[in-house]
Structures are given as C-alpha cells and as structure tokens.
C-alpha cells in the first residue's frame, strides 16, 4: 500500500482494479443475456412454459454467464440445475440464448480451471444435457457430445496457449533480469580493475611525495608525475567504459590489450615496484576480449604486488603458448601485510578468466604469492 495516498483513494483504486479485472466484461455480458432471456420469457418466444418457472431459469443462466470465469465450476452447477429444473417443471429450455449461455459456460470451465475441475465441469455439463434430452425424449446425444465436447476442447486449447504465452513471457523476463545481473557484475568488475589499480598507485605515490616533501621538494616531482599518469590512465579506461554503457555510435578507442603491457609495467616501476618482466611481441594480434582479459590479469596481479608484496621481488612472464596466452606472476609478501585485502579483485579475475574459457590459479607459494592464468586463443596472426 502506498502510505502517501489517503485511504479512500487506495480503496477506490482497488475497486477500479476489480471492476477492470472481472466484471466489466462479465457483468456486461451477463446483463445482455438477462435482457435477452427476460424479453424471450415475457414475449413467450419461444413458449417454454409459465414465466414463474422460465424467469428464474433465465436469471440463473445469466448469473452463470456472469460468474463463469471467477467460479467456473459453480457456473456449470447453476446452469445445469436451471436446465434440469425447467425440464422437470415445464418445457426444456430450447431457445438460442440458453444454448449459447451453456456453450459459453462449458468453454469457460475448460479455459479457466485446472485439468481436474475442468474435466469435472465438462462431465457435469454433458450429464445435465443428457438428462435434459432424456426428460424431453430426445435422441441428440451425439450432437450434444460433439458441440459441448468441442467447446470444452477449444477451452482447453486456449488455456494451453495462454500457459505457453505466460511461460514465454516469464522466461523472457527472467532472461532480461539475468542479463542485467550479469551486466552489473561485469561493470563492477571493470570498475574494480580500473579504480583499484589507479588508486593503489596514487596512494603509494602520494605517500612517497609526502615523504619527499619533508626532505626535499624537488624529490616529489617523480611521485607527482606518477600520480598524474595514473589519473590520466584511469580517465582513459573510464571513458572507454562509459562509451560501452552508453552504446554511442562512432569510433571508440581500442580496449586494453597485450600491446599496453609495457606501459603498464613501466607505470608500476615508476610507482616503486621492481618488476622483471618478459612480455610477448607488441605486434601480436589477438581477439580484443583475450587481450583485455590478459591485461586485467596482469594489472590486478601487479597492483596486489605493489600493495601487499615486497617491492623488490616481483617477476612477470606473459607468453603465447600453443592455443593460449599464459600469464605467470610471482612476488614475495611484505612482512607488514598479513593478508590480501577483501579478495574481490581475485574473485573478479576468476569470473573474467572463466568467462573467456580459461583457468586461473592464485595462492601462497614459496613464501610469496603466485598468480597463474591460461586464456584460450582462437586465432592469432
């Protein structure tokens, strides 16, 4: 309930919803059948007996038509009771409106209820029609089965079609929600990779600049340049991400890849991390997704080495093995760091590498930390 709205407004809205859901069509159709049936009874067209019998029958059938969707089985019971009662007390209801009303009720019980109640309602309708034929001395049992059985089958077919349509709609909605969730995870992963790396470099260099300013202002120039370069690099990555989110037309800057690894290693060295790196040829052409995945693995590994590792002990190896790009990064843990943060970065790497069909292993090794990734390559040139 919307607490901001006054109670009468909420009740009025509920009343309108109910009238829109049941009744407007059903009440209008019931009123139509009531007018037609009462006119038929009062004008004796056809003459089916005294109005004290036929008029209640007309009213009962109109009620059955009105409630055929909300209480389908009850509508069958009301309609059959009215038919049999008139057949016993007067002439059987043989007017066209009565026939149409019973067909409509039969269709509704099949289309609105589950299999069990629908079958019970259909059998009850056939039994009522057979009993009416028996009382009247008629022999049109085959006609009754064909007509009313056909109406029942049509109702079941419509219910099945509605069920399939509803399932398809719900499935499509679930797929859309899943796509949104996956996109949110991807965006969160990209934001972490960009922001965590850049802010880590900026934080380390800010500490270095503060220490340099305390001794000699000239010594702060190198850390300040590193801060500036890291901020600019983060802006480039954020601009690429915003282009993807907005889906803008036109040329976009290429995504990060293996060709950007030398600059990444240089920036980490400028931030104070000593890295021994063996990198592949910059002219190596890979699928953009493969190159970006490898770049993010190296970026996360070097960032963790800068934040938690020994600045003098990191080694990086990126090679193009048969059918895959392999990344191996080792570093020694610094004594003042006992853990590796929240672990969200490694979780994001696992998700990224798995999405690319690759494998990632990360954990303590030989007093340090080892990060290994294998990313399949479909085609190289």
Strands ordered across the widest β-sheet: 1-2-3-5-4
What is Rg? Answer: 39 Å
Going by helix content, strand content and strand pairing, the class is: alpha+beta
In CATH terms, what is the architecture of the largest domain? 2-Layer Sandwich
Instruction: Give the domain tally.
Output: 2
- Give the termini separation: 62 Å
Major sheet description: 5 strands, mixed
Total number of strands: 5
Superfamily (CATH H level) name of the largest domain:
Histidine kinase-like ATPase, C-terminal domain
Mean pLDDT level: 80
| CATH top-level class of the largest domain | Alpha Beta
What's the CATH topology label of the largest domain?
Heat Shock Protein 90
Note poorly predicted spans.
1-6, 14-21
General form: rod-shaped
Question: Total helix count?
Answer: 11
Quick tags:
381 residues, alpha+beta, Heat Shock Protein 90, 2 domains, five-stranded mixed beta sheet, 11 helices
Word description of this protein:
The protein is α+β, with helices and mostly antiparallel strands and 381 residues long. The protein has two domains: 7-139, no CATH class; 176-376, 2-Layer Sandwich (Heat Shock Protein 90), CATH 3.30.565. Helix content is 66%, strand content 11%. It has helices at 7-21, 23-42, 51-66, 72-89, 96-112, 115-136, 141-215, 221-246, 261-270, 288-308, 344-355, and strands at residues 275-278, 309-321, 324-333, 359-365, 368-376. A five-stranded mixed β-sheet has the order 1-2-3-5-4, covered by helices on one side. Strand 4 (359-365) and strand 5 form a beta hairpin. Mean pLDDT is 80; it is low at 1-6 and 14-21.
């Amino acid at each position: 309930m919307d607490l901001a709205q006054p109670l009468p407004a909420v009740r009025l809205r509920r009343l309108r919803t109910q009238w829109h859901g049941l009744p407007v069509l059903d009440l209008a159709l019931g009123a139509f059948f009531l007018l037609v049936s009462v006119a038929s009874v009062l004008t004796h067209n056809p003459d089916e007996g005294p109005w004290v019998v036929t008029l209640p029958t007309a009213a009962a059938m109109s009620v059955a038509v009105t409630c055929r969707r909300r209480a389908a089985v009850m509508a069958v019971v009301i309609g059959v009771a009215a038919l049999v009662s008139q057949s016993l007390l007067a002439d059987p209801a043989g007017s066209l409106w009565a026939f149409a009303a019973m067909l409509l009720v039969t269709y509704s019980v099949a289309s609105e209820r589950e299999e069990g109640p629908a079958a019970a309602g259909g059998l009850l309708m056939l039994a009522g029609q057979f009993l009416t034929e028996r009382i009247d001395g008629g022999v049109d049992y085959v006609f009754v089965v064909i007509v009313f059985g056909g109406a029942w089958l049509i109702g079941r077919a419509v219910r099945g079609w509605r069920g399939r349509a509803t399932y398809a709609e719900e499935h499509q909605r679930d797929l859309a929600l899943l796509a949104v969730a996956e996109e949110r995870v991807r965006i969160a992963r990209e934001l972490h990779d960009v922001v965590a790396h850049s802010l880590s470099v900026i934080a380390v260099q800010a500490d270095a600049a503060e220490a340099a300013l305390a001794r000699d202002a000239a010594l702060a120039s190198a850390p300040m340049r590193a801060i500036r370069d890291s901020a600019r690099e983060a802006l480039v990555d954020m601009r690429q991400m915003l282009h993807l989110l907005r889906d803008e037309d036109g040329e976009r800057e290429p995504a990060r890849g293996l060709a950007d690894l030398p600059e990444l290693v240089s920036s980490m060295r400028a931030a104070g991390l000593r890295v021994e790196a063996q990198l592949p040829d910059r002219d190596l052409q890979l699928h953009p997704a493969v190159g970006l995945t490898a770049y993010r693995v190296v970026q996360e590994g070097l960032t963790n080495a800068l934040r938690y590792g020994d600045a003098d002990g990191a080694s990086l190896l990126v090679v193009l093995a048969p059918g895959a790009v392999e990344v191996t990064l080792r570093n020694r843990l610094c004594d003042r760091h006992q853990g590796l943060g929240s672990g969200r970065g490694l979780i994001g790497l696992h998700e990224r590498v798995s999405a690319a069909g690759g494998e990632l292993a990360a954990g303590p090794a030989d007093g340090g930390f080892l990060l290994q990734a294998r990313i399949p390559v479909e085609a190289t040139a």
